[in-house]
Structure formats: C-alpha cells, structure tokens
Amino acid sequence: MPNTQIFKLPDVGEGLTEAEIVSWKVKPGDAVAVNDVLVEIETAKSLVELPSPFEGVVAELLVPEGRTVDVGTPIIAVSAAGAPGKAAKPAGKAPKPAGKAAAPSSNAESGPAAEPLVGSGPKADAVKRRPRRPLTLPSLHLPGRPAPQAPAAPEVHLPAPHGQATHVPPAPTLDGATPVADEALPGAKAPQQRGETMQAAVSRLITRVLAKPPVRKAAKDLGIDLADVTATGRGGEVTKQDLLSYQAQRDAEVDAAEQFWTPGLDPQARRIERIPVKGIRKITAQNMVKSAFSAPHVSIFVDVDASRTMEFVKRLKASRDFEGIKVSPLLILAKAVIWAAARNPSVNATWASGPDGDEILVHHYMNLGIAAATPRGLLVPNIKDAQNLSLKELAMALNQLAARAREGKTQPAEMQDGTLTITNIGALGIDTGTPIINPGEVAIVAFGTIKQKPWVLDGEVIPRWITTLGGSFDHRVVDGDLSARFMADVAAIMEEPALLLD
Amino acid sequence: MGPEHLPTTEFEIEDPGQTLGALAGSGEEPDMVQLLDAEGVLREDPAYSRYVADLDGEALRALYRDMFIIRRFDIEATALQRQGELALWPPLQGQEAAQIGSGRALRPQDYAFPTYREHGVALTRNVDLADLLRQFRGISNGGWDPRQNNFHLYTLVLAAQTLHAVGYAMGIQRDGADAVSIAYFGDGASSEGDVHESMVFAASNNAPVVFFCQNNHWAISVPTEVQSRIPLANRASGYGFPGIRVDGNDVLAVHAVTKWALEHAASGQGPVLIEAFTYRVGAHTTADDPTKYRVTAEEDAWRRKDPLLRLEKHLRSAGLADDAFFAALQVESDAFAKQIRSAVLAMEGPAMEDSFNTVYADPHPLVAEELAWFKQYEAGFADAEAGHTAGETR
Which residue ranges are recorded for the region named Disordered (chain A) (predicted)? Predict the structure, then answer.
C-alpha cells in the first residue's frame, strides 16, 4: 500500500498512554486536506480534535467509536488519491533515526533511541522492550577497566531505561554472555538449570524487603537484616525511622547486657539501681494489680495447627489487593477473635460494680485492643468498632496502630474503651503465657509463636505450623465452658480461616 | 462527558473597584491605556498617542500582518502537536497584540528574555519561527542562537528570566551601552519570588529593564484574582518605579507604552513595569483543557475584544486596507504554515554522539568510554540498522 498513509494515535497531552475514540468526523471515501478535523478523542486530560496530517481520501477507519486505544495505535488510513506525492509527507513515519548521515564507522547511534520524543511514531514503540540481537558482541576492552566477566549465575537482568544506562557502564556482554556459553559448551549449563536460577532470583526479588537504597545501605553498614525490622512505610517499605528505632532498641539491649554486671566507679552505689516508678510503668503496675486482684483469672491453652493460616497469609501477601499492606498471622487471629466473640458474646463484656449492685455490660461492638511494647512501655491501643472492618481494613488498622505505637504517637483516646485484648507474645518467640486481663475487660488472648513442630495427622507425624493460644478470663463473667468454647472457636479459625466466610 | 463540563468556581468579588474587572459580563472596562478600542475606533491619549503618531498605513498593515502570521503559525503548531509531531505546544492566541506591539517597539540593541509563549516577540526579533519548534519537538534544548537576534532562549522555569533580564540590564549599565533589556512574564509568574527579587534588584540598581507582564488572566487554572488583590501594575509603586496597565489587545497602545518605557529605561530613569491586560483564548498548553476551569461566556467576551479584529476594523474604516489585502495575507500565511510544516517534518533528532560531545569542551576519556559502551549497547538491538562494527559477525 504505497499510497496509503497511516495516522497513529498521538500523545496529545504530556505523557498520556491512551485515548478513547469519541466520534469520527470523516468516513471512508471522504476527501481530507491537511489539518481537517478527522476525529474527536478523549484523553485522561481533555477532549481533543485531531487534525489530519495528510491530504487524500479516507481509506479506512481503523478503530470504532467508543474504543479506547493505546498511543501509537493506527487509527485511520488515508490514501493519497488524486495528487500522489503531494506535499504532505507521512507524518507518522517522518522522524527517521538521526545520525544516518554520521560517519559510517559510528553507525551504532542510529538506533531509534535517538529519535525525537514525539507522539505518534517512536514513542508508542517505547513501551515495548526492543528485542536484543541474538548474537554476542565482541567484548570491549577498555583501558583501565578489567575485561568484563561473564557472570556465573546471571542475576535477573533488568536493563536500565535508556539514558540511565551510561552512569557506570555495566559489562556490555552481560546480555550476550550466557548464550555464548551455551553455544560454546553445549550442555555445560543446561537451560533448565538456568531457568531455575532465574526463578530463584525472581522469587528473591519478590520476597525482598522493600527499602530505599540509603536505608538499605545503612542497614548493611549496621549489620542489620532488613527482614527483622518492622516496616511502617506507606508502601510497606522499611523507613529510615524504622531502622533507627530498631537500631536504638538493639543497642540499648546490647549495651545494657555488656555493662550490667560491670561495677561502676563507685561500686557501692551501683549494687542496687533505684528506678522511680512513674509514667506508664506506674499505670501498668496499678492496672495489673487491680486486674489481678479484683478479677479472678482463669487461664486456658490450646495448641493449634495454623498451617492453613500461614498459607492464607502468604496468599494475601501475594494478592494485588493487599499490595503494600503488611499482612501477618495476627490479622487472622484478630479476625478470629472478633468472629468468636460474636458467637460467645459474654467474653466481650465489662464487670461493673455500682452502688445498686453489680452488672455485666455486654458490648455489641468490638474495640479490639492490641498490647504493644513501645519505647514508652506497654500500651494497649484498640481498634474501634473492629467488627465493622473488612479483612483489608483490619490489616490497615493494625498496621496503623502498630506504627503509631512504635512512634510513640498513641493518643490516650486510642487506649480507652477497649472491650477485648490480644497480646502477641509470639512476636518475641514465646510459645504461650498467662496474660493478665486489661482492666475493664473480661478476656484476653495470648498469641504464641508459630513454628514448625511435629504434629500427628491421620496417625502420622508430620511437620506442621503450630501455635499455642492462651486465654485469660474473668471468672465472674466467663465460666469455664464459655471460655473453652470461645477459645475453641478462635482455634477453629486459625486451623481453617475459610470458616470466616461462613 | 462533553467539553461543557461543570462551570467552575465564580470568585466572589467583594469590592469591584479592587478587581481587575475581568470577569465575563462584568462589562466594566478597567482603568488602562487604550488607543484603539474594541470597535477599532482611535482614542486620543495625552501621554501616549504621540508614540504612535508616526505609524502610517503601511506600518499599521505591517503590525496587522505580523499578528496574522503569528496566529496562523500558532494554529499550525497546535495542529502539528495534535498530529504527534510536537510533544507540546503553548498557544498564544489572544496575546498577539501584546507581543507584536511590544516586540516591534524594541530596537536591535535591546535584548528580550521570553517565557515559552513569546512566539510573537520571536517573530519581531526575526527568529526563524521553525526553530521555535525544535524544543517542542524534543530535539533541541534551545533552537536558536540568542545572541544573533538578542532574543533569549525560551525559559521554561517560571519567572527565572526576570532575574536574567535584570542581570543583563546591570551589565548594560556597566558597559555604558544604549540598550534596554525586557523581561516577558505572565500573571502566574508574577507570584513567584524571582519576580520580587528581580524588581528589588532592578530598583536598587536603577537598571535599564522593562518588566513586561502579559496578564492573560489564567495561570493555567488559577485566575489572577486569586493571585493579586490589586492590579498587577500597581505593584511597581511598591518597588519605587512606574507601573502602567495597558490594553494588551490594543497593539497601538502596547506599542506606545513600550516605546515610552524603553525610552524611560534607556535614559537612565530606571525600570518600568508594564501590565498588558490581555487574555489567553486557548489552552495553557496542548496538554490543558480550559473548559474544566473557566466558563465559555468569559472566553466569548474576550473574543469580542480580539486584537486582530479591532485593527482590521480600523484599517477598513480608515481605508488603509481592503479585501484584497486580507485575502492576500491569508494566502501568504497558509503558504508560510506549509513551509513550517515541512520544515518540522524534516527535523531530525541529534545524533547520540552529540549528547556525549557536549559534556566537556575537550575530549574526555571517561566520556569516550561511555560513548563506546553506549554505541555497542545500541548496536545490540535486533532492530538496529545493520552495522559493520569491527569484528562483528552475524
């Protein structure tokens, strides 16, 4: 079709990628002159009329009205009827690679990367990766730079975008090296093996902890594994602050350990260290005494096979819906507790002693407290009306609560009116314990660590992810059977999170 | 959704005397210098009429021709952007008189510092208009030699050129030259700190600089009323130099006021601020959709004050131009647009080597190494043109 010119959808805004064909102003057979309006399109920014770059007769409309197409998509064909070879040059093809006229020895720069960055032609192609040549280029031996080594196990090669590649030139043969190795030594490195290496590298990338390069470097310098640091960044990344508070905490522990038994300058004074009880320590002490001595505690424990919870968490982490949201088994436990409380409402209650006698206040809402070890001490902020939250909302609420607690930003209001508490002692690697009920509540659930343990399933011992749930209840309100049923319900969800769908 | 989106915020004006009287339908003509009204009728002005007294029929036709050509050029450039040949284009429609009137007042030794919309001024400085499009085609960082026509490169950083202009004017002072620098900027840029600093320095140094503010009423989507409680020209008194508001759609008034300002600055009396009261009829750039933030009634009201229309009325009523003149101009401008089009289509990007060659004045081993690497990288694409680099085999 030498006489037919194709108009590709241009980028009419700055950096738009697509547009909708709203209405055609011409039809096949119509004669058009340069700048006659062909079509009205709507982009993310505006409604725009596209003038014809060609003179001729409309041969075909290539995209129907109402269709959204990518920039660079051919939208109309105009045949140069009547006056072939007339002034209007095919605009879509006009910008030819530059450097054609350059010295023949330097032909390499004539690649489309040097083309003008304008709408219709080359820009549209830029979305796709340009195919690399299958052959190897001779390695370039440059003065003062060792000959590039073919990498033994190629990392996932993510070529830098054009223009960024020049900063520190990586070995130019990186792309070609492996194929050559294959050709030269057939079988020396089976493609399959390479595939596995690639896959491993890819999964490493996916499971990699997110952090910005300076944070990454700081962590490396400090010898901190980023995976150990709790991430509070907006995109789930470890922030500088996270790293610093982790470091501060670790330092405090480590330093204290070293000096604890070391006598100071004045040994007499250092034998016993006097710490005034104040602030959160004081409040914690008062609360615990009040709770322990006013509410008769009963504690029960249950071992749970949480393997399905672990799988569920893994799937949530991988799902797009939860992208950037930290998901942990605590989320499932929180959901399980809310679910179980609805089936056993008396656990979500308060014992109220009044002048006219005692009352049990059953709460038809769940302000779910999460005990959090913070720089200020133990705090129990709660998630208000947690029963109304979807799994995703609950995950975000947990993240936010944890982040605020860690940053020391927890407000008094966030700690009031709790109705039931979870304490996540498993985070510290502890199996279980007997928690003390948060005053004003009648139940608390302790979440032990989840680790692989031998577990008997259908008469066989197999490794499963096991955790122990502990619960303490105020026996004035919650009897043994109710506490048992509640804990069994929580355990049931941890064993089979799908029951939440019930 | 059609182009007639929600009619956007009408700003509450408490004291009409304090506003620019620019709202559609306000009907109030703000206080400003005007020599040719919207109906093409000449008005006498005691201070400024004498600056255009020497403009005969030919000179008036030339001003009209300039405005007509630049409008046609602007339309063609906009079309080229819509066809994917330019990455972006900032249209000037509506501001022709402000630009041609002031540009034609400049003397060859004066130096103009434009924003990115001074296409009309470029024309008056004899810049090859096709060169204006190089930057917008993404193939050049500039496009012309600013020293050749004393027309600086387009400045995309808002208001930065006002500082350049003042610095240049201070240089003129030190050279003892008979020249003036003129800084073009818009109402949006007038809110930038650079303009303040440049006015402070200009006043302190009594520098020969003219601040030419085209108040086109919209800083993209922000109306001038939001940015200033007083007419922008009044700001000059705060710095201690004269500020004049002129009808920016009246090419004669703009021409007269600019001539006066240049004289004032060149005679050692220091800077002047001119506020050309005009209107951006089109979009801020081709990536903008003005229907989203302003009402059509406002645009229509300003179209009635069109700078070309009023001069055409005047030329016709004074018997200075006939149908033949306007028809011939149409033909001429269409041919010119065609030239521009083919010039743009023929424009090719710079060779990859150019980027490396301009890093250092002298050859540099690191740059040479990186160029060599990049060439090799580029040659590794399957769709690269078949090359014959030494040692390469298929």
Answer: 82-182
Q: What is the DSSP letter of A366?
A: -
Percent helix, strand and coil across chain A, each to the nearest 5: 35, 20, 40
Residues A73, A23, single domain; the answer is yes
Contact call for B82 and A50, based on CB within 8 A: yes
In the DSSP assignment, the letter for residue B101 is H
Domains of chain B: 16-346 (3.40.50.970), 352-394 (no CATH)
Same domain, A235 and A306: no
Q: Check B82 against A12: CB less than 8 A apart.
A: yes
With respect to residue A377, please indicate whether it lies within any of the assigned structural domains. yes
For helices B307-317 and B57-82, give the axis angle rounded to 10 degrees.
150
Res A147 pLDDT > 60: no
Q: How far is the C-alpha of B337 from the C-alpha of B315, rounded, in Å?
A: 24
Residues A436 and A458 in one domain: yes
d(C-alpha B208, C-alpha B110), whole Å: 10
DSSP of B292-321, one letter per residue? GTS-HHHHHHHHTT-HHHHHHHHHHHTTS-
Q: Which residues contact A257 (CB under 8 A, 6 or more apart)?
A: none
Instruction: Domain count for chain A, please give it.
Output: 3
d(CA A471, CA A299): 5
Distance from CA of B338 to the nearest CA of A (A): 9
Note whether A250 and A283 are same-domain residues.
no
Q: pLDDT digit string (tens) for A348-380?
A: 999 988 888 888 999 999 999 998 777 677 888
> For chains A and B, what is the number of CB pairs under 8 angstroms?
194
Out of A10, A107, A132, whose CB is closest to B84?
Answer: A10
| pLDDT given for residue B195 in this prediction | 97
Q: Ranked by mean pLDDT, which of A268-277, A283-292, B368-377 comes out on top?
A: B368-377
**d(Cα B52, Cα B60) in Å, to the nearest integer?**
10
Length of chain A: 502
ipTM above 0.85, yes or no: no
A140 and B82 in contact by Cβ < 8 A?
no
Query: CA B162, B164, B165, B168: dihedral to nearest 10 degrees?
Result: 160
Domain end residue (candidates: A216, A242, A274) = A274
Distance CA B191, CA B175 (A): 31
Neighbours of A22 (CB within 10 A): 16
* Plot region of A459 (φ>0 → left; ψ -120 to 50 → alpha; else → beta): left
Closest C-alpha to A280, from A422, A369, A409, A379 = A379
